[in-house]
What does this fold into?
Amino acid sequence: MTKRMPTDGVLRVVLLTNSPAPYRTEFFNELARCCRLLITFDAKREPDRHWLLDESNFRFNWCVSRGLMITRPRLSGRATNRRVLQVPLSTFATLERFLPDIVVSDELGVRTMWAALFCKVRRRPLIVWWEGTPHSDGTGRLRTLRRRLLLRCTSRVWGTGVESARSLARYGVPRERIDLGMAGIDTISWRAAVDHQRASARDQVRAEHALQGAVLLFVGRLEPVKGVLEMLAALTALAEIPDVPPWSVLCVGAGPSGKDVDRWAAEHPDVPLARTGFVQPESLPKYYAAADIFVMPSLEDQWGIVCLEALVAGLPQITSWMAGAVADLVGSSDIGDIIDPRDAQAFAQCLAGRIRGAPTLVSSDSRTDAVTTWSPAAAATRGLGAIHTCLEAEPSRPQLSVAPQFSDRCRAASDAVLTISVDDGHPSDRRAADLLADLGYAATFYVPARNSERPVMTARDIRAIVERFEVGAHTFNHVPLTQLDSEAACREITDGKAWLEDIASVSVGSFCYPRGKFTFELARLVQAAGFGGARTTMGNIVGRPSNPYISGATTQAFSHSRAIHLRHATLERNWLGILNYGRIFRFATDWTEHFERGVEYVAEHGGVAHLWFHSWEFDAYDQWNQVEAFLRRLKSMYCFRVATNGEVFANV
It folds into this structure.
C-alpha cells in the first residue's frame, strides 16, 4: 500500500513539469518558501539538454516520474527540429501519495491528463502552465480537441506573456482566467554578473576571440528552427552593404547548424566570427558583456529566455517577431527592433542601422524595470495570487496557512518601514549614494568633519549627496564620546553639527554615535544640541525606538559570528536584541540572511528594518556586486515604505 503524506494545515502544491532548467530553479525556490511544494519532473535530463545542475541549489522537494521518453521530428515553419515527448506513468501515484491541495501542470500533454484525472477524483483545483503561442501551437484537430477539453478542466491558467494569452483565446479560455508573467530568470544575479564581467573581462574576451568593432551576439542551440540559416543570409547581405563600420559575430551554442556557421566563416574571412560551442549557464555572462548587439532570429520560440537575458544585460536586440517574448520585452527602440528573419535584406539593413548608430547599452530604467518585473520573486507572487484565487473559489475547503513573506508581500504596508544609514563619510559613500538612488532607497549619510583613520568626502561631494539624501552629524573628529569628559563631548557634538550645516546649507537633525558608543548622559547632550534622534550600533532591533536618542538598528552589512552578536548585545545591555536574535533572526551570521529575516518580520508585523554599513568595507571586501544584487532583490520581493533615519525619529 502506498503511504500517504499527512496533512497539517500548510498549503500543499505539486507542480508537474518536464525536466529541471537552470533558469527556473530560483522561481521554484521562491514558491517553496510559501508552501509545501513538490516538483515532479518527467525526466532528470532530456537528450538535447546539456546543463549541469547543482541539486544543492534546490530548496524544494522534488522527484522524477517513471515513464517513457520519445524523440520525434517536428516541422516548425520552414525548419524541422527534433522534439522530446515525455510519457510519465507514475504521476497519478505521486499525486495520491502527496495529496496536494492544488496541482499545477506544465503544458497540455500526458502529464496534464493525469493531473486532470486526479483533480477530478479528489476534487482539487488544477492550474495549467501554458507557454504556447499562436505561431508555435501546431495544428491538428485531435490535438486542438484534447487541449480544449483539458483547459475546460482547469481553474486558472498560468501564461508566460501576451502571445500565450492569444494562444489560449483560440482554445476558448477567457482572459479573466489567465495569469500572465509566469516566466523569467534570476534577473538580479544576472544583471550583477554581466555588469561585473563587463567591467573586468570584456576586453579580454574580445581579444581571446579576435572580435572587433560592434560585436553581434547569438546565444542558443545552432539548429534550423532557431533561424541560424536566416541569420547567415542576413550577415551575407550585411557584408555587402557599403560604409558599415567594423563588426564581428559571436555565436554561443552548439548544434547541427554549427557546420553552416563554420562554412560561412570560411567564405567570409574578412568578418571575424567566433563560435564557442556549448557553454554552461554560469559562464554566459562574460559573452553578453563582450557583445554590443544581441541577435535573435528564431523561427519559433514560445518565450525566448535569451531575449530577457539580453535586456537585463543591457544589450539592444534585433529580435524575430516569432520569438514569443517580443510583445512583453521589446517595447521601444531603446530596447531593440523586431524583424522578420526570413527577409534577409530588411534584416541586414536593421543590423547596419544599429552598427552605424554606435550601439549603447539599454537605458538603466528599462533594465531596472525588467529586473523587477521578471524576477523569480515577482513571478512567484503572481503564481501565488492565482493559487489563492483558486482556493478562495472553494469556500468549503479548510483554511490553509501560507508563509508570511508571501501572504503579505503584495499588500502595501504603511507600518513596514525600511531605512538605511551609511557611516563615516568615506569617499566611497558617493558610490553608495548612486547605488541607493538608482534602486529607490532612502538613506541617511553620517559624516564627520575629520577622521584620523580614513579620508572624508569633500564639501562638494557632501553637497551632491544632500541633493538626494539626508545627511547626519557624526561628531567633528569621529572620536568615541565615551572617552571624553562632558564638556569635550558636548563640543564634539555641537561643532560637528555646526560644521555640517555650514557645508550642506541644511538643518541637520540626525546624529550617530562614533563606533556606537553612548550613555544616557550623552543622549541628553545630543537632545540638548537640537537633534531629533541618534543612532547607536545596537543590533537585532526591528521595532520603532522607544527613545529616539538611543535608537538601535537591525543589521550591519558585515557578517559577524554568533559569539560577537551575543557579546555586543550583552555589553550594551541590549536584552531585546538577544531575544530577537534567536526568536526572529534564528542566530543568522551571514548579514544578508540576517537582514532579510528582519525585513520578513517587519513586512508581516510592522516596524522598522534598519540596515547600516561602511562603504569602505564594501571596497575592502569587494562586495559591491553582492550588495547591489541583494538590495535589488529586496525591492522586488517585499512591500515597505522607505524612510530616512530622521523620518523614523520624527514618527516615534
Notes: The mean pLDDT is 88.
